[in-house]
Specification:
331 residues; alpha+beta; twelve-stranded antiparallel beta sheet; two-stranded antiparallel sheet; 10 helices; 14 strands; 27% helix
Length: 331
């Protein structure tokens, strides 16, 4: 990458502001631009103490807040086309529809361009705070594609050591809280549905049902088959667009490794899971895991056959009268 900027401001209070940034990816001649990146952390003295080996500092800031404002990408240039190749969906042979219209309602930069947009503008935020005494890590990530879509995620982890924070994540922390919100602007959703419906020869209602079916098929191909309640929620979302909220708050912090070993019917209770679509709380979160298609299950496990249970017989001596023999005939 080649990175240039016009201005850089720092303060002893722990803030850094970088303005008018241009980033040119390797092998490209075109840049995407960012109006400002702001970083806020501890004041300079605290940071120096944290990184002082004589003071046994952990080397990681206690907290960090990063804001990205106005990331702009020209959708009509070569950079957008090159980036799009990574995310394109396969299209049917001979079809004139954009590849993204053949997927599960996913967007591509080319689709946005075909819909008449010349630029894509995004904002982002990343935050974390670490309480070393409690060994608790909280963090959040937010991404907004203006007038299109936004995603925000927050979580809290327990049993996170300073070494884990600095060098990676050895061991397995416990999940205390998780929140995910995905929002697709309904106006954009309708615009995209109308455009793709026209390009695929479907009505808008048919196209929405098609994309919902494609999404559920992708889940099934990965071993997740939705129950009736979740299936209806998916259909509702693709019909109206809007917001999906997923909250997991276990009764007690949950070791993530043990979660993988639980049967599907116990996951909802273990996680304290709640899901809402456009503020409507779902009461049926049932689903099944298909072992033969689940990519997270080793192939050797998939090939194992269930043990054959052979019947066991027990001889019982019973005294009967000769006059009763006829009733036991042919048994």
């Amino acid at each position: 990458f080649t990175i240039t900027y016009d201005d850089l401001d720092t303060s002893l209070g722990g803030s850094i502001d970088v303005d008018d940034i241009s980033i040119v990816p390797v092998g490209q001649s075109e840049a995407f631009k960012i109006t400002r990146i702001s970083i806020q952390g501890p004041d300079a003295i605290t940071y120096l103490l944290d990184n002082n080996p004589l003071a046994d500092g952990s080397g990681s800031p206690e907290y960090l807040n990063v804001l990205v404002q106005d990331l702009n990408l020209n959708l009509t240039g070569g950079l957008a086309s090159n980036l799009d190749q990574t995310y394109q969906f396969p299209t049917q042979q001979g079809s004139g529809a954009p590849a993204a219209c053949r997927g599960a309602g996913n967007m591509s930069l080319g689709l946005l361009r075909d819909m008449g947009r010349d630029n894509l503008t995004a904002d982002g935020r990343m935050f974390y705070r670490y309480d070393e005494d409690a060994r608790r890590l909280t963090g959040s990530v937010e991404l907004t594609l203006r007038d299109i879509q936004s995603v925000s995620m927050g979580l809290a982890l327990e049993n996170v050591s300073p070494q884990a924070l600095e060098y990676g994540m050895p061991g397995m922390p416990s999940l205390a809280d998780f929140r995910l919100t995905m929002q697709l602007d309904p106006e954009f959703g309708e615009e995209m549905s109308a455009y793709c419906a026209g390009r695929t020869g479907k009505t808008v209602a048919e196209y929405k049902e098609y994309t919902a079916g494609m999404f559920m098929q992708q889940l099934a191909d990965n071993g997740i088959e939705l129950g009736r309640g979740l299936e209806q929620a998916v259909l509702s979302y693709y019909r109206d667009w809007g917001e999906i909220d997923i909250i997991a708050k276990p009764p007690t912090p949950l070791n993530l490794l043990t979660l993988m070993l639980r049967p599907p019917e116990n996951i909802e209770e273990a996680l304290g899971l709640q899901v809402a679509v456009n503020d409507r709380l779902l009461t049926d979160l049932g689903f099944t895991l298909n072992q033969s298609t689940n990519p997270f299950i080793p192939e050797a496990e998939k090939k194992k056959k269930a043990p054959v249970v052979k019947p066991r017989y027990r001889m019982v001596w019973k005294e009967i009268r000769p006059s009763s023999l006829l009733q036991y005939r042919d048994r």
